[in-house]
Amino acid sequence: MAVILENRYKGIRSPHKLKMGVSGCLRECAEAQGKDIGLICTQKGYNLYVCGNGGAKPVHAALFATDIDEETLLRYVDRILMWYISTAKHLERTAPWLEALPGGVTYLKKVIIDDCLGINADLDKIFENNHQKYHCEWKEVAYDEEATKRFRQFANTDETLENEQIEYVDMRKQRHPNTYALPDITGPAVYSKENAPAEGTPDADGWSWVFGGKADDYQRNLGFAILHGTNELAVFFVRASTEETSMGQWYCTQNMSPNKQSKTISRGLVAQLVNGTATVAEPIWKATYDLNTGKGIANPSLNLSTFHVRESKEGDVLVWVPSPEAMSAAFLKQAQVANEAAGWVHPGPCKDGVSSIPKKSEKVDVLDW
Questions:
Q1: Residue range 41-93, pLDDT digits in tens
Q2: pLDDT band per the 50, 70, 90 thresholds, residue 349
Q3: Mean pLDDT, rounded, for 130-155
Q4: Does residue 242 belong to any structural domain of this protein?
Q5: Which residue has the higher pLDDT, 286 or 320?
Q6: Is the pLDDT of residue 204 over 70?
Q7: Cβ pair 139, 147 in contact under 8 A
Q8: Domain range spanning residue 111?
Q9: What percent of the chain has a predicted confidence (pLDDT) above 90?
Q10: Residue 24: inside a domain, yes or no?
Q11: Are 123 and 87 in contact (CB under 8 A)?
């Protein structure tokens, strides 16, 4: 039955995650009574429990039906899920959704079993439509050459870098991630496109237009990281808000977020303010930035470096940047200043399962991310 549920409901979009459990007897080893959909086998069929959850505020699932056969069970679950998906608020789990229904589980039974609202035929059609149109999106991407281009690490090269900032250590004879957050980098950005030297001037020594990938590989209002030496930049193509035109604007910033120094800006959420300003929200720490100026919006002390970017007649994306060596040195110096000001030191490797964390008085080389 667990396999049947998995295959029947995989791929269905819902307002929140859904958890299901199937226990083979009343001993309840699968903890089905704490799931959104829970089944417990009986001598006559199944007991169906609905709208439970664990977590910080656990809710015991409500008993919906007893000793029902497999066909009836699946029909009830189909309808419950389709009604929940159709009416629940964004990110609302099944437990608060059920609690908000007038009459709770009693009313839910009237709707799903007795069809008091006359919607069961529609719910059945909605489920059948979802079930028949299911396809594995991961498989599609894996076998689609054009789609796989979207998941490259960098738009301008097939080279990859390990930049997840996760170290693995041995602890109790097991492999564990030794994670930590770097300090914020506050203050002015290292580079600003307004202050960039003009092409052909003496100040432009070492600066050049570098290849940032093909323009056709960039999706509308999404970012793509590019590699410049060991430096990562984030390039965005933001189109006009109306679909009638393909006109848009190119933007380029550093890929490292000043907020905790995670290299995630290229994966941020692009939006526009009421005044038309293009913005990006860093996906992990949620800091927001003006894509044109790089200035922090929610936190003005956090700022991104910005660079000129253009599209050539051949469809190449070109970015005006200093040499990779100069850029690396400038970014590293900025990070060192922030780390030293915060008194941050690298945790150090684990030895024999015991973490060797240096004291603040001990000097540890700053990592070059």
A1: 999 999 999 999 998 899 999 999 999 999 999 999 999 999 999 999 999 99
A2: low
A3: 88
A4: yes
A5: 320
A6: yes
A7: no
A8: 2-134
A9: 72
A10: yes
A11: no
Phi then psi for 94, rounded to 5 degrees?
-65, -30
226 and 312 belong to one structural domain: yes
Give the DSSP per-residue string, 175-195.
EEEE---PPP--SS-S--GGG
Residues 6+ apart with CB under 8 A from 348: 355, 356, 357, 358, 364
Higher pLDDT, 365 or 140: 140
Angle between the 2-9 and 70-87 helix axes, to the nearest 10 degrees? 40
Q: Is 68 exposed, middle or buried (0-12, 13-18, 19+ CB in 10 A)?
A: buried
pLDDT, tens digit, 9 for 90 and up, residues 141-150: 889 988 888 8
* Helix, strand or coil, per DSSP, at residue 84: helix
Give the Cα separation of 215 and 200 in Å (integer).
Answer: 25
Q: How many domains does the chain have?
A: 2
Q: What's the whole-number mean pLDDT along residues 132-139?
A: 88
Kindly state the tokens that stand for 6. 């998995």
- Residues forming beta bridges with residue 351, ordered by sequence position: 354
In order, the DSSP letters of 245-277 are: ---EEEEEEESB-TTTT-B-GGGSEEEE-TT--
Shared domain for 338 and 197, answered yes or no, is yes
Asked if 205 and 321 sit in the same domain, the reply is yes
The answer to whether position 39 is within a domain reads yes
